[in-house]
Amino acid sequence: MLETLISSKTRIKLLLRLFLNPGSKAYLRGLADEFGESTNAVRLELNRFEEAGMLSSENVGNKKFFKANGEYPLFGEIRKILLKYTGLQDVISEVIEELGDINQVFLTGDLAMGKNSNVVSLILVGNPDKNYLLQLISKVEELIPKKIQYLIYSKDEAKSLDLENERTLLLWNEQ
């Protein structure tokens, strides 16, 4: 679907990588290695996005780090499109909001890093009804072409873990 609107695979990879987890930062060579693309192709797209105001950048040492610009007027809409494209919007609306005693839900794995994946890896914090969770996951897996895997931690267990980092993305919070 997104490929018909945006013909550049590099552009799609950059959008996924930087807008799905807006707190993450990346630099040119790291992105080129991660995507298996030439630095020239990645540089061209980074420059376009930065000139359009979609990305902000900062120099750290001899590296220029890029991240999604949360102040960009279409930031929210772009992120919503990407959440729908990856199937995460369906997971949020169909699973998380119906589970009951859930405090937080984090996305982890490739999707949290902005890479496309056929697996949605979730960390649930709280005490959900596990039978109902399995029913909902089966239902959502029929709606989206992805498998859903999950871990459940209690609030106390989650406090001892560093869940809010660059490798996880907070999808939902009870507050």
Summarize the structure.
This protein is of the alpha+beta class. Helix content is 43%, strand content 23%. Helix 3 packs across helix 4.
Topology:
Blueprint: H1 2-5, H2 9-19, E1 26-27, H3 28-35, H4 39-52, E2 55-60, E3 63-68, H5 75-86, H6 88-94, E4 102-108, E5 119-126, H7 130-143, E6 147-153, H8 155-160, E7 169-173
Parallel strand pairs: 5-6
Antiparallel strand pairs: 1-3, 2-3, 4-5, 4-7
Attribute tags:
175 residues, alpha+beta, 7 strands, 4-stranded mixed sheet
Structural write-up:
The chain is of the alpha+beta class and 175 residues long. 43% of the residues lie in helices and 23% in strands. The chain is built from eight helices and seven strands. The chain has helices spanning 2-5, 9-19, 28-35, 39-52, 75-86, 88-94, 130-143, 155-160; strands spanning 26-27, 55-60, 63-68, 102-108, 119-126, 147-153, 169-173. The strands form two sheets. Strands 6-5-4-7 form a four-stranded mixed sheet. A three-stranded antiparallel sheet has the order 1-3-2. The chain is globular.
**How confident is the prediction overall: mean pLDDT?**
84
Number of helices: 8
> Uncertain regions: pLDDT < 50 for 5+ in a row?
none
Work out the radius of gyration: 17 Å
Global morphology: globular
In sequence order, what are the helices and strands, one letter per element? HHEHHEEHHEEHEHE
Q: Helix proportion of residues, in percent?
A: 40-55%
